[in-house]
Amino acid sequence: MRIDVLSIFPSYFDGLALSLLGKAQDAGILDLRVRDLREWTSDRHRTVDDTPYGGGAGMVMKPEPWGLALDEVTEGSERPTVIFPSPAGELFTQATARELSAREHLVFGCGRYEGIDERVFEYAATLGDVRLISLGDYVLNGGEVATMAMIEAIGRLIPGVVGNPESLVEESHEDGLLEYPSYTKPSVWREREVPAVLLSGNHGAIASWRREQQIERTRRRRPDLLPPEAGDHPHS
Q1: Which of 5, 132, 149, 226 could crosslink 86 through cysteines, CB 3.0-4.6 Å?
Q2: Could you tell me how far CA 151 lies from the centroid of its own chain?
Q3: How far, in Å, CA of 26 to CA of 140, rounded?
Q4: Judging by beta carbons within 10 Å of its beta carbon (0-12, 13-18, 19+), is residue 34 exposed, middle or buried?
Q5: CA–CA distance from 84 to each of 130, 157, 188 (Å)?
């Protein structure tokens, strides 16, 4: 997969060279290209923003640097998916991450200030499939943190990025539930014991316990995620 990122703070993304995503880039599984939007400015101050029409506080990102940048990074790519992190966008979920992990080319545009000139989204739609996506009901200073979170969530679902793909199966949100609790050695730590069923060797009982824990944890923390059949659970 190829991912292009456009930002006025490209160093935000240095952390993506670490761990599994860094190894995926080294192996050629992931082609990540981070570019400074100011490369496409023409004045000596490398200006990317201006005052908003209609008045109001703050500044708005100018359309021309975005247009030139999008022209370059999408050239030769057939209908890439162009993503703009935005509190006005659709909610990012695990299902969204899985859907986007199957795309060949993603382009992330990181807004700043009061946002990007609306015409940029309209123009981007002539070059690819545009998605405005929100991490949640809160506002960040810019799109960089949201983009990093999305790349992390999407990237780890690309085949070959996570060494053991079975570890992805029972994670939170994969089946609509939160993940069950995990334990490792020692079996007793500071007077706290690992649940006996996990030491039993009875794989059927372990699977049942983990499913019960998923349902109970979801019921306590995210009841909105519970599937209808979970209502018949004996602990409900």
Answers
A1: 132
A2: 5
A3: 31
A4: buried
A5: 8, 20, 47
